[in-house]
Write a structure and sequence with these properties.
The protein has one domain: Alpha-D-Glucose-1,6-Bisphosphate, Chain A, domain 4. Helices cover 32% and strands 35% of the residues.
Length: 174
């Protein structure tokens, strides 16, 4: 039994150490972009995206949202379940066409970024394009993030948004 415990401990150290070394070679910053096309009007899509407080009604990743009082800019605390609470600040908003949000990192989180939502009318309906410009400090979390999928959150958001409008959408990358 002692030998098995020792083996498991050594294996654990090797795996974590290997992940840390591999993650150190990955870039801290990242940019991902995806888009979908919906049949709903640009104004109605923008209103849903901009109504931050109602996000938990249609995006399952978010358990609840509350307004952060006393913040310098409009800020919302998103309870993301196992991922914890993420504070999102509205950096800029152009009604009907553009919204920019920023994850407020208090210095202990070790990750963050900016989401730019662009909404535009097309011949096929309304295109919603999200660009995430983020960073991840922890080399181990960089490996985990890549294993889970770099676009997982953005594309999950877009699929949930489409479902809110009664549509099925496959996000397009880029």
């Amino acid at each position: 039994m002692k030998g098995l415990i020792k083996f498991v401990l050594i294996l654990g150290v090797l795996v974590v150490g290997g992940a840390w070394i591999y993650g150190r070679g990955m870039p801290r910053e990242h940019i991902v972009a995806s888009s979908i096309t919906l049949t709903a009007s640009p104004d109605s899509v923008y209103k849903v995206i901009r109504n931050i407080q109602a996000t938990p009604e249609w995006w399952n990743d978010v358990k609840s949202v509350t307004r952060v009082q006393g913040a310098a800019r409009e800020t919302w605390a998103h309870d993301m379940g196992m991922a914890g609470v993420v504070n999102i600040e509205i950096s800029s908003a152009v009604p009907g066409t553009r919204l920019v949000t920023k994850i407020v990192d208090d210095g202990t989180q070790g990750w963050g970024g900016v989401w730019t939502y662009e909404i535009s009318a097309t011949g096929a309906g309304t295109e919603v394009h999200i660009t995430e410009e983020g960073y991840v400090d922890s080399p181990i979390y960089r490996v985990v993030r890549n294993a889970l999928g770099k676009r997982r959150t953005v594309e999950g958001y877009l699929r949930s948004l489409a479902a809110h409008f009664g549509e099925i959408a496959t996000p397009r990358r880029g």
